[in-house]
Amino acid sequence: MARILFHMPRHMAATDGSELPPFYQHLRDGFTALGARVAVVHRDMDALQTGPTGPDFNFVHNGRIARAGLLNIGLAYMYPFWYVDPKGVFADSSLTDLAFDPAQTPQKPAARMFARLQARLKDTRISRYAQPEEVAQFPTGAIAVFLQDWSDPVERARHMTARDMLETVIANAGGRSVIVKPHPRVSGLETFEILDWLARDHPQIIARRRMCMTFWPRLSCRCPSPRRCRLKVWSTAYPRLFLVAPIFTTAPKLCKRPLRFRRHWTAP
């Protein structure tokens, strides 16, 4: 009998399912109630890419595999929202084949959703990761750059390094303050090398290891073709404070080099 397999990273791969995130537990319980056999296995991305498909149906946590009998599962950034995708997650998702059209968004349901998220996250100052409770004050009109640090999904998504992006922002800040925030789970050398470079060559830059900031998608970069160039650019809860994160999705020709980023980037 075919099984439903959850391919999980090691810290979630206890065979009894005790380490599964709640979303997967709901899936497991639902499939089991329907009579399906569900098993948790360690995620081996190489084997999934090259191995036989078999009769089982596969769910791959943070996968990037497109094949029959398999769906990739990823967190839609904010708990408790998840999504499944036939191609992958993050920049490997099938969403990168689509263009965002605001006119297709039902305005009233979207406004209600936005209000709920504001009440749950911004108004209560809840962050996805542990952050200081004190309120940080920043210069008016500052530009905030949120570093992601190096990881395999980030590397596949971007078309320049974080330092290239930061150099571009600093060069075009137009006299405004620039705030740099490392990722709360930073562990790689890239971010520490950037912080060392900033302290040495750009002491005017405000670098904060931790700060709780609530931000909402109101702004976008100015590009010749929004379908081909999507920047993760957000406004924040602070007056006239803007931030940029180095995540590119579908712009291999337009945003492949920092020069092109400089040419098309327009600070809000």
Question: Could you name the key traits of this structure?
Answer:
26% helix; 7 helices; single chain; 268 residues; alpha/beta; 19% strand
Set down the secondary structure blueprint.
Blueprint: E1 3-8, H1 22-33, E2 37-42, H2 45-50, E3 57-61, E4 70-75, E5 82-85, H3 107-122, E6 143-146, H4 152-157, H5 162-171, E7 178-181, H6 189-201, E8 206-207, E9 215-216, E10 231-236, E11 242-248, H7 258-264
Parallel strand pairs: 1-2, 1-3, 3-4, 6-7, 6-11, 7-8
Antiparallel strand pairs: 4-5, 9-10, 10-11
Helix pairs in contact: 5-7
Q: What do these coordinates show?
A:
The protein contains seven helices and eleven strands. By secondary structure, the protein is α/β, with parallel strands linked by helices. A six-stranded mixed beta sheet has the order 8-7-6-11-10-9, covered by helices on one side. β1 (3-8), α1 (22-33) and β2 form a beta-alpha-beta unit. α5 (162-171) runs parallel beside α7. The longest helix has 16 residues, at 107-122. It is globular, with a radius of gyration of 21 Å. The chain starts with a strand and ends with a helix. Residues 211-268 have low confidence and may be disordered.
